[in-house]
Write a sequence for this structure.
């Protein structure tokens, strides 16, 4: 089993930036395609971005050009750099493998509001 700890969320004004972190308890980034997800109140969890074990990235259309996924294999940490944040980005953000292999962490709350 692998545990994920997400952090870095907070309250930010529209147009602002945040960097989220996902710390994994084991070294899995070179094995799995990893992903960031988000869940807004009353909505289903949705895929935001993914990064393959080879380092290729892919983004949901609604964040393309604004968010950047990356990882530090040595530290077992994955990041999500978010810029030009909008109120519709408000959600709890989670990390997991693309296949949602492991239990979900507690997530980190991102609130975009003026």
């Amino acid at each position: 089993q692998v545990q994920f700890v997400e952090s870095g969320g907070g309250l930010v004004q529209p147009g602002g930036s945040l960097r989220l972190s996902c710390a994994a308890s084991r070294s899995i980034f070179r094995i799995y395609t990893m992903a960031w997800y988000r869940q807004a109140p009353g909505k289903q969890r949705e895929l935001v971005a993914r990064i393959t074990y080879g380092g290729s990235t892919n983004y949901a259309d609604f964040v393309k050009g604004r968010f950047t996924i990356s990882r530090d294999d040595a530290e077992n940490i994955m990041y999500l750099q978010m810029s030009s944040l909008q109120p519709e980005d408000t959600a709890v953000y989670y990390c997991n493998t693309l296949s949602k292999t492991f239990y979900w962490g507690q997530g980190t709350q991102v609130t975009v509001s003026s």
